[in-house]
Amino acid sequence: MSIELIPAVDLASYTTLGVGGKADYFVRIERVKEVPWLCEKIISMSCPLTILGGGSNVLVSDSGVRGVVALMAIVGIDTKEEGDDVLVRVGAGVVFDDLVEYCARQGWWGLENLSHIPGTVGATPIQNVGAYGVEVSEVIDTVQVFDRQKERFIDMLASDCGFQYRDSLFKSAKGRFIVVSVTFRLSKKPMPKLHYADLNQYFISKKNIDVCDVRKAVVEIRSNKFPKWQDGLVGTAGSFFKNPIVDETTLARLKAKCPDLPVYEVGNGKVKLSLGWILDKLLNRKGYKKGAVGHYEKQALVLVVDHKKSSAEEIDLFAKEVEDLVNSELGIKIEREVTMVGV
Ligand SMILES: Cc1cc2nc3c(=O)[nH]c(=O)nc-3n(C[C@H](O)[C@H](O)[C@H](O)COP(=O)(O)OP(=O)(O)OC[C@H]3O[C@@H](n4cnc5c(N)ncnc54)[C@H](O)[C@@H]3O)c2cc1C
After folding, report:
1. Which CATH number does the domain housing residue 171 bear?
2. Does 278 fall in a domain?
3. Are residues 254 and 144 part of one domain?
4. CA atoms within 13 A on the CB side of 119
5. What pTM value is reported for the model?
6. Of 239, 252, 298, 306, whose CB has the highest number of CB atoms within 10 Å?
7. Domain boundary, last residue among 72, 92, 121
8. Is residue 1 part of a domain?
9. Which atom of ligand 1 is nearest to the CA of 179?
């Protein structure tokens, strides 16, 4: 098998932030059987391998990425019915929102709250994408990966994937696993999940809701929360940081300072804080801009950049400023949701 490794490919246009340098080599992976070939090639070249999906959750260094960057472009959808469930096995390179739309049209429940999340299917388990009260791990049945350590394909059950809030085993095992397909367990029986405040409000007086109604609502709500990155004028990776999860002692300290602070129980005596709220209401950062980087005017957790004028370094420095500010004002260390590539 021979697949072309293209030298010196500019990566900025492969990411939604739209900044960053070149990959030493770039390759498009379209078939499952190309994955072991690629891994052998990486061993023979003794160089690093970076996997890229839709580039909507990465910040690529201005000095580029050493070794090979492989764009996952494996497509295909297979379905199998099991009683009221439908098992939908999907290639890692399928655009996730195309899948969500397809499933909603079939009347299959489970993915609709995750409408309009950019990127590919294969990346969804990496950070366990979530939105509007649902995490993708709730509907993942198995993840098929190529294990670079064992040099073979394995089907991992959702319970083996170490899923947590915006985290998984795939993220912590840094590059060991390449996701080639994901199997979702969806339901033909209505299963609306409308507990998230915005959705609850949207459907407050509506009855007989179908899955397409929920998708439509999520798309409408999201259009007011995220910039229009698709037109190429603004760069963004959505929420740049994770919402912090803190223990009771930290919460008590914060509540003494700020009694209105919204909190969400996550179990084990811990609560999740809304970093967007903190940045907006406590630190007055909504819409704040410095150079070509700023907080989105409608949601402070979302960073936006004028990528024609910005750089990865400028975004990184701005993000560090936010991290330092939250730490100095509230004594909380925040984490990035976006993965740094090539740094
Ligand atoms: C406007 C906007 C809104 C967003 N809203 C949300 C949201 O509501 N909820 C949410 O959770 N996220 C959100 N995101 C973040 C992002 O869309 C998701 O994290 C998405 O799953 C990333 O997919 P991707 O294909 O673009 O991955 P990439 O950005 O290409 O990659 C992300 C990481 O996954 C790894 N990776 C990608 N594919 C594979 C694979 N096949 N095998 C192994 N590793 C892989 C990469 O190496 C990288 O570390 C948003 C982003 C934007 C720009």
Report:
1. 3.30.465.10
2. yes
3. no
4. 24
5. 0.96
6. 239
7. 72
8. no
9. 42
Told to judge if 166 belongs to the known catalytic residues of this protein, a careful annotator would answer yes
Instruction: Name the domain count of the chain.
Output: 3
For residue 46, the model assigns a pLDDT of 97
Asked if residue 159 and residue 243 are part of one domain, the reply reads no
- Among 72, 94, 125, where does a domain finish? 72
Give the pLDDT score at 174.
Answer: 87
> In this predicted model, what pLDDT tens digit does every residue of 265-305 receive, in sequence order?
998 899 999 999 999 999 999 999 999 999 999 999 999 99
Q: In this structure, which long-range contacts are made by residues 301-304, counting pairs with CB atoms below 8 Å and at least 24 apart in sequence?
A: 301/239, 301/240, 301/241, 301/243, 301/275, 301/276, 302/225, 302/226, 302/227, 302/236, 302/238, 302/239, 302/240, 302/276, 303/236, 303/237, 303/240, 304/227, 304/234, 304/235, 304/236
Which of 281, 282, 279, 284 lies closest to 319, judged by CA? 279
Confidence of residue 20 (pLDDT cuts 50, 70, 90): very high
**Same domain, yes or no, for 215 and 86?**
yes
- Single out the catalytic residue among 56, 137, 168, 239: 239
The ligand 1 atom at the shortest distance from the C-alpha of residue 14 is: 30
Q: How far is the CA of 56 from the centre of ligand 1 (A)?
A: 5
**Residue 186 falls inside a structural domain:** yes
* Confidence at residue 228, expressed as pLDDT on a 0 to 100 scale: 87
pLDDT in tens, 125-143: 999 999 999 999 999 999 9
Domain that holds residue 57: 6-72
Instruction: Give the residue, by CA position, lying nearest to ligand 1 atom 18.
Output: 57
CATH number of the domain within which 240 lies: 3.90.78.10
- Is the same domain home to 115 and 135? yes
C-alpha 82/C-alpha 190 separation (Å) is 16
28 is catalytic: no
What tens digit of pLDDT does each residue of 164-218 get? Answer: 999 999 999 989 999 999 999 999 999 999 999 999 999 998 888 999 999 999 9
Probe ligand 1: pick from 57, 111, 233, 239, max atoms within 8 Å of CB?
57
Asked if residue 267 is part of any domain, the answer here is yes
- Asked if the model's pLDDT at residue 323 lies above 90, the reply is yes
**Would you call 285 a catalytic residue per the annotation?**
no
